[in-house]
Design goal:
Structural class: alpha+beta
Number of helices: 6
Number of domains: 2
Distance between the termini: 47 Å
Radius of gyration: 18 Å
Shape: globular
CATH topology of the largest domain: de novo design (two linked rop proteins)
CATH superfamily of the largest domain: Recombination protein O, C-terminal domain
Number of strands: 7
CATH class of the largest domain: Mainly Alpha
Strand content: 15-25%
């Protein structure tokens, strides 16, 4: 079966002498792994498409019994050049890619989450909304799409106590906006240190509780420093 799908490249690495393996988050099939044969050859035009954060259109012949799908065609759908010039935006964007990779199972489609991810990167590129707010917005969308929508009235789960988000009405108000899922209604203001720390800790605690693989996120310390 031939699959045509937009996708965002999560990560890529060398395989053998001339090939590259790329993990991508696709709209049609969720997270997939592709092998791009000959990508490291000097005459191959494909390698440039499989850098992390690339937004591409993929065509491949899907083989259900294979862990690695073989790419047939690839082309760019968009390019977020401004993200690369903003240290905070590029760091949070790369963190989003890693979180997405670790949180999702292979070939489990989340088309709504995919659309949200594209929207978030587009807003990062426009550089008009606080990058921290965009990061938290995606964390909320990830939790909801995985079936773990936060309930602001719940303060604990078995084995953990959640950070107290009710000390400040601004904290719960912002979380309510984030959970509403409308990126067009996100506020564009700076968040003070205490609110940032609570929101960041609250969402990250929930994600780690529901997704065990997130305990080994490489960007963890950098994310904490930026968001706080």
């Amino acid at each position: 079966m031939v699959i045509h799908t937009p996708a965002i490249v999560l990560k890529s690495f060398s395989y053998g002498e001339s090939s590259v393996i790329a993990k991508c988050f696709s709209r049609e099939q969720g997270k997939i792994s592709l092998i791009i044969k000959g990508a490291k050859k000097s005459k191959s035009p494909k390698s440039v498409h499989f850098q992390p954060l690339s937004y591409v259109e993929l065509v491949y012949n899907y083989q259900p019994k294979r862990d690695l799908q073989t790419i047939s065609k690839v082309s760019f759908l968009g390019y977020w050049s401004k993200i690369l010039s903003n240290l905070r935006s590029i760091t949070l964007s790369m963190a989003i890619l890693e979180i997405t990779d670790k949180a999702l199972s292979h070939q489990d489609p989340y088309p709504t989450l995919f659309s949200t991810l594209v929207d978030v990167f587009q807003e990062f590129d426009k550089d008009k909304i606080n990058p921290n707010i965009l990061f938290w917005f995606y964390e909320c969308a990830l939790l909801q799409n995985l079936g773990f929508k936060p309930d602001l009235g719940i303060s604990h789960f078995p084995g953990i106590v959640l950070p107290d988000i009710h000390r400040n009405k601004k904290t719960t108000s912002l979380l309510s906006i984030l959970l509403a899922g409308d990126i067009k209604k996100l506020p564009n203001n700076e968040i003070d240190y205490k609110d940032s720390k609570i929101i960041s800790s609250y969402l990250w605690t929930l994600l780690k509780y529901h997704c065990e693989n997130l305990n080994n996120v490489k960007f963890k310390k950098v994310i904490r420093d930026i968001l706080n």
